[in-house]
Amino acid sequence: MALTLEELKEKARLLRIHSMRATTAAGSGHPTSCLSAAEIMAAVFFHAMKFDPKNANAVEGDRFVLSKGHAAPVLYAAQAEAGMYPVSRVMTLRQFASELEGHPTPRIPGVDAATGSLGQGLSVGAGLALGARFQNSNARTYVLLGDGEMAEGQVWEAAAFAAHQKLENLTAIVDVNALGQSGRTMYQHHMEVYRAKFEANGWAAEVIDGHDLATVVAALGRAQAARGRPQAILARTLKGNGISFLADKEGWHGKPLSKDELERALAELGPAPAIAPDAGHSYERAKLPAPPEFPAPPAPEYKLGQMVATREAYGAALKRIAAVHPKLVAIDGDVKNSTFSEILEKAMPERLFQSYIAEQNMVSVAAGLAAQGLVPFAATFACFLARAYDQVRMAGISRANINLCGSHCGVSIGEDGPSQMALEDLAMFRAIPNACVFYPSDAVSTERLVETMARTNAICYLRTTRPKTPVLYANDEKFPVPGFKILRESASDSATIVGAGVTLHEALKAYEQLKAKGIAARVIDLYCLKPMDGAALGAQVRATGGRLVIAEDHYPEGGVGEAVLAALAAVGIAPGIVRHLAVNGVPHSGKPDELLEAFGISARHIAAAVETIS
Amino acid sequence: MALTLEELKEKARLLRIHSMRATTAAGSGHPTSCLSAAEIMAAVFFHAMKFDPKNANAVEGDRFVLSKGHAAPVLYAAQAEAGMYPVSRVMTLRQFASELEGHPTPRIPGVDAATGSLGQGLSVGAGLALGARFQNSNARTYVLLGDGEMAEGQVWEAAAFAAHQKLENLTAIVDVNALGQSGRTMYQHHMEVYRAKFEANGWAAEVIDGHDLATVVAALGRAQAARGRPQAILARTLKGNGISFLADKEGWHGKPLSKDELERALAELGPAPAIAPDAGHSYERAKLPAPPEFPAPPAPEYKLGQMVATREAYGAALKRIAAVHPKLVAIDGDVKNSTFSEILEKAMPERLFQSYIAEQNMVSVAAGLAAQGLVPFAATFACFLARAYDQVRMAGISRANINLCGSHCGVSIGEDGPSQMALEDLAMFRAIPNACVFYPSDAVSTERLVETMARTNAICYLRTTRPKTPVLYANDEKFPVPGFKILRESASDSATIVGAGVTLHEALKAYEQLKAKGIAARVIDLYCLKPMDGAALGAQVRATGGRLVIAEDHYPEGGVGEAVLAALAAVGIAPGIVRHLAVNGVPHSGKPDELLEAFGISARHIAAAVETIS
Predict the structure, then answer these.
(1) Minimal Cβ distance to B591: which of A96, A151, A394
(2) Is the peptide bond before B31 cis (omega within 30 degrees of 0)?
(3) Does residue B108 or residue B576 have the better pLDDT?
């Protein structure tokens, strides 16, 4: 849209009016955080960006990420002025029935990731820019950040990543209004600090007056012309700018104006447009990006009993599926030789993006790639996904189609010790709404579940194991979701043993030990922890007299055991006797078998648990 | 220790020998990551640091943090050469019975925080340096980082924080060996990038040859003399340095030398000392820092029924306790006016440290402060503690005495929307070994539990609520751990209702609704989620016919419901009928009451659940 400078100024004036009116109507929100960004938003939306308001999340169109998500009203105001919905809709801000929430989410068009947990937007923007380039789109991504969130380390992970990837199609604008929530920001208006930081990270960077529209427009032009590196526009602004009694005043963060204050503020801005009553029509997006269909890849080719680590099968599956799935990409955090993402990279180097040791950025970049219609698989040691739990949480709110693989779970990693052992990852991922959580025990189920992940419209988590384990299934075995496999059963089973990963193999050994003593037990491979079919599982427990032994290489809280208990309770099945074997206390270094034994999840402990309740 | 340059060179040679021997003996580990740091470690341990090897974690002594935790053997080698234990003990590296684990933990003297999840050490070091200064110690803290971990954003959070705090007693040495785990690092040997980044963050920074001992010694001297800001020594090194076939070679990360390779390597280094067989004596620390005793503070002064947000009671408790507890300090992430940490700050400004919007750094700084014997309370919105889950995980491995408060839990925050709602925090904190998890429902229990946190030798988490709730307890009420309160009971109760926080108050309303219909129910305030007394709780459930309704403002996974089910199962109590009310799916903006209703955890839903099972 080629607006004149005067027309852009009018847009900025309207954005201020809409933002203040909407927050006053809502009775909450952050009007002053919108006012500092009015000129920036006007210049980005009505001068720089090229996008179709009717198809605002297209790979061909420029994208915008509001990293400072609390300024949502100014985004909604800009979208309304761009014709995406009527201004009356902005006035439904924060209402129960409105899709215009307190912080933006992809429920509405033009938003690719939920923001509001600060410092994530630049990584999402890098993912969008990378995803555009990967798909040969010349579209640009603009990210608006606040200065408060520049304290978040993830911003600097993203800055390093974007420069390393030479994302010349990425522009960051920092609204440096110098006021945080509870006081002045660390650097206040020392603009040169921000410039030095961005330049040190390899960006083009310039400091401008963020309230001078001609200056903002010119800076955006220079950004568009820049080649070989991303660009940062550091805009000196005032929080509450444009209103005499708000500008640069402390105590106004997250506070709407009273009706009287609004009147006084509007009087300073000149004539305010009449707004018709809202028709109540929702502008929620009809559909979010979903994984594309792809043909069935060739089946894996394992032999029963072959020793293969599930982490290695993960890498093999990526390669096998990628051959028939052009949208599949992977991201690594400098552990590709441990997670086996390198199997994909060696076959198709262009499919793997290196995020180095920066897990937060890795996960948010994945969300950006998914918002461009790609199907990303990000992998690292499972314990290091804890580093990115807030990013996973926000991806959950975004309904982002990202796939995450965590290798090296549990004490079975052995000598490296507890810092490298994931013992809380199942608790983490189970508590993400609508997520799928898979925990395969052999190479075939791993490969099949990776394919399922690529087809599933949800955040999917795959937990893989470091040591090699024997192949249990034929290559054509199916692994429905929800589901589990009954590996051992008889009419006289005295208990049901539930295991997954290394503990399933311990359970199979326990089965033999028990059999030698004349005790029959049922052994279940619970490869899918979420969703879970409690009724089907409960039927097995009932068939074994209500006696249940659960063994997991995880802390007792939030993992396999609690998942099973909750699933049974939800369908009204109360197991008579439960023995829950899990890792209690902080583990330490040792040989894998020593640790399984010491922390009570070895075959011997499982067999003993069955014996005590039989 | 005033060693000559030649003596220091000999130390470096011995550190190389010990590191390679230990990893070969262990059959795993990271010898080449030790070799690049040999001169740095020799200079730090045997020239720069002033500490008592018999009391290596004293507030008066210099401290050392090995942020690149995988180089543990070179730390153990240095500690052994410093006389903390015999060199023979280093050869027990990674064994099940050894306290010298694959990555360092505070089990051993001279280690203040577990490392091995990269990028956390500089924050811990900043906490140690801050904690020393707060206690008028002139001691210095040295942190050794690897270049791979410089990609972690937390390093830059720590860098900004340390400079802002003017921590002139903090020196970072970066071992830039240019090789990561799976390939070359992002910046390889472009040393000026690191210098520019540190300088942009306000540090003194210089680039040196990390294998020239005289240069390293001189740089450490300049660092000690620097005033007003922390110092970064950027040491250009080679991974595997000192051994011809290892130096700067890819493919050697995390790989011990074979016995033959070790022979060849040792031959290059000259005579290797004889090492006596290890006596098997453990050098585990006799005790870790524990919270000091303090006199009972005056009781709070609330009136029954008074409306007070538990988050506000948290701040009031900090102030009340701090008056009698000189070691209590608080850390904020720019939300002190929301978490009410500001109540403490207004009374005692020197007790609150501002970490700005950088939760990872906030938590690791807290771990550093705790390692200096202080009792830190760090608070932010509960959802943003997800940003620091890996740091909490590592604090758990460290057995760090940190206290965390998460405000604004659940959908009851209302209009701000899901990005600001913590709905997985209980799952997170329950899955930390030995942690205590508290979820008070009124101001009195909040204040009492904050005092309990200050006295408890464990990671403690307190979940506070945004809206005001009525005071339920007399000011002298006690809240034992584990424990719960029975607020309503009769001989004819048809079900037990368990609530906490906002759902407890909904449960009390449901009680009245049910009573009007002639249905009696038991109402339990489950203020302590971990540890939990399953037998005592189970007795209540049994007394109400095994009928149990649990309501929580949290996702269904890993929270109150699963905690209760697991605690009951652990003592062999199977509730007959369970109704678990929790927040299913991603919530959105709305008024708190609308959301409690829409997501099924309001009084009406609780009463209906009791009715359906009565």
Answers:
(1) A96
(2) no
(3) B108
Q: Which residues of B324-347 are buried (b: 16+ CB within 10 A; e: fewer)?
A: ebebbbbbbbbbbbbbbbbbbbee
Q: Which phi and psi (to 5°) does residue A603 adopt?
A: -55, -40
Q: Which residues in A55-75 are b (16+ Cβ under 10 Å) and which e?
A: ebbbbebbbbbbbbbbbbbbb
Alpha carbon distance A82, A388 (integer Å)? 34
**Amino acid B519: pLDDT:** 98
Percent of chain A whose predicted confidence (pLDDT) is above 90: 98
Mutate to test the interface with B, among A179, A424, A584, A597 (most CBs of B within 10 A): A424
B155 touches chain A (CB under 8 A): yes
Stretch B3-29: mean pLDDT, rounded? 98
Which residue in chain A is spatially nearest to B96 when comparing CA positions?
Answer: A590
**CB-based contacts of B34: which residues, under 8 Å, 6+ apart?**
B15, B16, B19, B20, B23, B71, B73, B74, B77
Residue A103 corresponds to which amino acid? H
Q: Is the CB of B155 less than 8 angstroms away from the CB of A153?
A: yes
Closest of A140, A17, A581, A219 to residue B569, by C-alpha: A581
Task: From the candidates A359, A424, A447, A552, give the one annotated as an active-site residue.
Answer: A359
- In chain A, which among 528-587 make CB contacts under 8 A with chain B? 530, 555-559, 561-563, 565-566, 569-570, 572, 574-578, 580, 584-586
Q: Please, which residues have CB within 8 angstroms of residue A313's CB and are 6 or more apart in sequence?
A: A300, A440, A442, A443, A444, A446, A447, A450, A464
B198, B199, B203, B204: CA torsion to nearest 10: 110
- What pLDDT, in 10s, does the model give residues A12-67? 999 999 999 999 999 999 999 999 999 999 999 999 999 999 999 999 999 999 99
* Interface touch A181/B335, C-beta < 8 Å: yes
DSSP, res A351 = G
Nearest beta carbon to residue B200 from set A151, A193, A359: A193
Question: Is ipTM > 0.85 here?
Answer: yes
Whole-model pTM over 0.90: yes
- Residue A418's pLDDT is 98
Assess B376–A contact: CB distance below 8 Å, yes or no: no
* Pair of tokens at residue A310: 């599930």
Residues of B in contact with A183 (CB under 8 A): 334, 354
Considering CB atoms only, which of A153, A334, A561 is closest to B154? A153
Chain segment A233-277, per-residue pLDDT in tens: 999 999 999 999 999 999 999 999 999 999 999 999 999 999 999
Whether B90 contacts B99, CB under 8 Å: no
Give whole-number Cα distances, B130 to B45, B143, B332, B372, B394, in Å. Answer: 21, 14, 15, 9, 20
Mean pLDDT of the B48-64 span: 97
